[in-house]
Every structure is written in C-alpha cells, then in structure tokens.
Amino acid sequence: MVDLGALFRDTGDIPWVVGLSGGKDSTAVTMYLLETIENLPPHIRRRKKVFVTSVNTLVEAPPVIDHVNKFIAALREYVHNKELDIEVVELVPEMDQTFWVNVIGRGYPVPRKEFRWCTDRMKIKPQQKFINERPDIFGNPPIAHFLLGTRFDESIARKNTMESNTSIGSDIHSHGTMPLSGVIRPIENWTTENVWDYLLRPDWIGGGNNPFYKINQELAILYKDAASGECPVIFDPSKQTCAGSRFGCWTCTVVEVDSSLREMIDSGRDNYDSEYLGLLADFRDSMKIERNQSENRVQGRNRRGQILVKRDGSVGTGSYTMEYRRNLLKRLKEIQNRIGKMLISEDEESKIKQIWAEESANLTILLGNKLGVDIDDNR
Questions:
Q1: What digits encode the pLDDT tens for the residues 161-198?
Q2: Strand, coil or helix: what is 195?
Q3: Average pLDDT for residues 50-79, to the nearest whole number?
Q4: How many CA atoms lie within 13 A of 366 on its CB side?
Q5: Percent of the chain having pLDDT more than 70?
Q6: I want to staple 231 with a disulfide (CB 3.0 to 4.6 A). Which of 186, 212, 224, 275 is the partner?
Q7: Closest C-alpha among 156, 150, 119 to residue 28
Q8: Residue 230 has pLDDT above 50, yes or no
Q9: Distance between CA atoms of 52 and 284, rounded to whole angstroms?
Q10: How far, in Å, CA of 143 to CA of 3, rounded?
C-alpha cells in the first residue's frame, strides 16, 4: 500500500491534485487523502497546496452527477469544519468544446473507441486549463503530483497501461503530458473488494465515525442498480462486487452497449425518473445507430470543404450533414422541453449557430473560388 503520509512529507511543497469523478475508486483516494492529512502535524499539512478537482462534462448521467454534487457538498463541509487546507474545485469544458457544440455544431461523429475525441476535450483539457492558469501555485512550466484512483485489478487493459507508465522503485510515476509532473496511485494494488470495504467501513482515523459512510452507502446502491443487482448485499462491505457497472456520460457511444441507465430504470427505485432516463437512453442509442448511416454524413469532403480521399483512393466520409445536425438539435430540444430539464444550454445553442454560420460562409467562399467568382464583390 502506498504510504501517502511519507510521500506528503518527502515531496516538499509540490502541489497535490486529486481527480474526483465520483466513482468508487476516486472517492476512496479522496478519503485516503483526507485521513492522511488529518494524521499529519499542522506544520507539515501547510507545506503544500492540495486540490480536489471534479470535472462535470455537462452530459453526465443524471443519477451520477446528483451523487457527485452531494459528495462534493459533504466534502466541502468536512474540509471546512476540520480546517483542512484543501481546495475543492469544480470544472467544466470550455463552451467551445462541449459535447453538443462538437457534435451538433461542428458535426463531429459521436465518439467511438477509434475516435474518442471526447475525453481530451471534455475531461483532460479543463483540468489542464486550471493548472496552467495558476502559475503562482504550479509554476511555469507546471509541476504537480496527480493522485489517481487507477488500479491494476480493474482490467487487463488498465494493468498494461499502468505498467507502461510505472517508475521502478518509486511511487511517483511519469505523467503523460506534463514532463515535470508525476502521478501517484494510492490504491493501485487494491482489489474491488478492498475499495468497497474501505468506503463502507464505519470508523475513521483517530477513532471517529466515517463522515462519508451514509453517502457511500448511496454510492453502493447506485452501482448495484447500474449493474442489474450485481451487488447483492449493500450493507455488508465484504460482499460488494460492483465491478461490472460503469458510470459516465449518458451520451457515451464508445461502449457497444451502455445498459446502466436502463438497469437503473428496471431497478424500480422511486428516486429515479424512469421517463427521463428512458428518453436519454433511447436518444443515446439512436445517436450510435445513426453515426455511420451514409445519409447523415458528408461524403468526400470535411466541414471546411476539403476533399477527403482514403489511402486506397476511395472517397472518405466527413462530418455530419447540416440537415442531420439541425434534426439532432430539434430532437434534443424536444426531449428537453418534454422533461423540463436542461440538456443543452442557451450559450451552447448560440455557439452552435455561430459555427453553422461560419461554416456556411466558408463553403460559400470556397465555392466562389472554384467558380472564379469573388464573393465579396457580389455582396
């Protein structure tokens, strides 16, 4: 087990940043950090700045973001009451890079495993922006240690990725995009059962009660519902096996089948809005089905009008057609109006229409150039 206390002492004033998604692993890392800092002498605690950052992609599954917001509120209250020098920061993507601005505005095909553009724009870049805008804390170029909840036990793919970035003989590993920064993996050797046992234990460091015990019970129920009852005994930590459920964006088309919303509906639990979740699940499925339908994609050019040719000489497939993008926006707003909850903001819609206007103008100029006509002279 990684000794966070020793690392805190040994790494001087290098800032620590925890990435909190609200899932079980990042929650466990956050709690482990809190217990570690509470157990340190005050003069050691004050050596470095500590941040807990949570990125809301604006398309998070409703039950998940509700839980995250509840946990963040509890975390802020606890940090305040204990007078811990930990800053909790909520982040969102740039308006120019939200899911709907990219899909409906620019016509990006919804993500898939081979073209997973969403993670960088909606998850990684908001945190990078936060770091880069605080040179007084992180320096320039930035130096920080990022605490992640990645575990070898998660999957073979995760294990391989972690091993390729492991620094032998050190608990501080290389960071993929910040060469002067490092990654700490406090629970890298924990099993899923270890994680649940830690989250749901009733005690806390120093003999107190786990301040997040109740909210973590709710998290376990959320995992159970998303996994079609895979976690059979919620209040017995030793029997938690919620490894099969996944949380994230309700729009996610990277996975072949995302049944988590439908499993929540089927659980019959009163606190889920079945109609709301059902409409979202249907919309997500339709986007995945419609992604590669030829009538929805521009053939032979990209959105800037440039010719697309594959290596074999055949014509390539570009972005979504303007007709499909308009239709997608219309359908999304119909669901929004029906359920009375915001799915796309007015700012996003304004940005989308700005992109459409610019694209139309650029294509008009391109067409004029091909025809030898000066568009400006005809205005």
A1: 887 778 777 899 988 888 899 999 999 999 999 999 99
A2: helix
A3: 96
A4: 13
A5: 86
A6: 224
A7: 150
A8: no
A9: 30
A10: 21
Q: Which helix (H) or strand (E) holds 172?
A: strand 172-174
CB 260 within 8 A of CB 228: no
Residue type, 333: K
Tokens of 274: 């079945």
If one counts every other C-beta atom within 10 angstroms of the C-beta of residue 231, the result is 23
Beta pairing, strands 297-299 & 317-320: antiparallel
Residues 6+ apart with CB under 8 A from 145: 7, 11, 14, 15, 16, 17, 172, 181, 182, 183, 184
Tell me how far apart the alpha carbons of residues 236 and 252 are, in angstroms, rounded to a whole number. Answer: 31
Question: 241 pLDDT exceeds 60?
Answer: no
- Convert the pLDDT of each residue in 102-113 to its tens digit: 999 999 999 998
| The pLDDT of residue 219 is above 50 | yes
Tokens at residue 367, please? 């067409």
Give 33-97 as a DSSP string. HHHHHHTS-HHHHTTS-EEEEEE--S-B-HHHHHHHHHHHHHHHHHHHHTT--EEEEEE---GGG
292 by Cβ neighbours in 10 Å (0-12 / 13-18 / 19+) ranks as exposed
Contact 144, 177 (CB under 8 A): no
Per-residue three-class SS string for 84-114:
CCEEEEEECCCHHHCHHHHHHHCCCCCCECC
Token look-up 């929004």 returns 336
Would you say how long the chain is, in residues?
A: 379
For residue 224, the tally of other CB atoms under 10 A from its CB is 23
**pLDDT tens for each residue of 289-324:** 999 999 999 987 666 656 555 566 555 678 999 999
CA 129 to chain centre: 15
Reduce the DSSP state of residue 147 to 3 states and report it: strand
